[in-house]
Amino acid sequence: MPELPEVETVVSLLKTLVVHEVIESVEIYWNNIIGEPNVTTFRNNIEQQVITDVTRRGKYIIFALSNGHLVSHLRMEGKYYVYDEKVEKDKHTHVIFNFKSGKEMHYHDTRKFGKMYLYPKNEPLAILSKLGYEPWDQDLSADALLDLAKRRSISIKAFLLDQSVIAGIGNIYVNEILFTTKIHPAQPVNTLSKKQFDAIIKATASILSAAIESGGTTIRSYTSSLGVTGLFQQQLNVHNRQNEACNVCGSDIEKIVVAQRGTYLCPICQSIQ
DNA sequence: CGTGACACCTGGCAGC
DNA sequence: TGCTGCCAGGTGTCAC
Ligand SMILES: [Zn+2]
What we know:
By secondary structure, the protein is α+β, with helices and mostly antiparallel strands. The protein has 2 domains: 4-128, N-terminal domain of MutM-like DNA repair proteins (Alpha-Beta Barrel); 142-265, Helicase, Ruva Protein, domain 3 (Orthogonal Bundle). It is built from 6 helices and 11 strands. The longest helix is centred in the C-terminal third of the chain and has 20 residues, at 194-213. The protein is globular and about 60 Å long. The protein binds a DNA duplex through helix 5.
């Protein structure tokens, strides 16, 4: 389910639900969800720790613990649910955190793509080390992007999906950002102007902020994490709108493939240069 | 190093 | 109703 706005929505909710909870035990039903360390060490080391905060970096959820950090990536379908009392797991529940209070936090993931990483106190969160700018970072500038782009031959879409450039943009929002800035997704990134990068930075911040305000985007899945249904899908201009009318010029929205991903665009508003 | 193809998984849905 | 193939909000790896 998640790109940055959906993760941000989940993080705010988790913060109200699990901060101060003590992890008494952890049940793991699909070992590959645990990225680091091995499953036994993960389980042994996390037990008895207190959750002290929940934050976000890019698309990662960071649980600050009394003696380290749990970093969790939901990938395509990961969801968290928190219950006040014991609830039976279902077919796609892969990790259960049992809290001392009797509450439970379930990690649910239909496709099993999600990953969790546990780091001891004072150790760097290695999985986050290669992430690029947060979209609202003051150091994110057109000059910085221009510099990163000049050695690259990929499309602007692939560039914006590269988490080492800007962290948090995924397939829905990159389609929307490129529509707003009137740039063709397949345009080679080393042909963009400083002005275009400025527009991309502004559009990224405003689209992601608006999406967070709406609780994110919900498509395909009936509810997302914690039963939240985001509403930003009502404001999408191109994503998932093949053959519908462009909100600017009325042309049919097209679907093509760029960077191996489904890509929606208005062929009139977004011409390749 | 940068790039594209592919692997990792399951379920929903369009088209026979 | 079945079956088949394609598609899905992501990223790690591997061979040029
Ligand atoms: Zn248009």
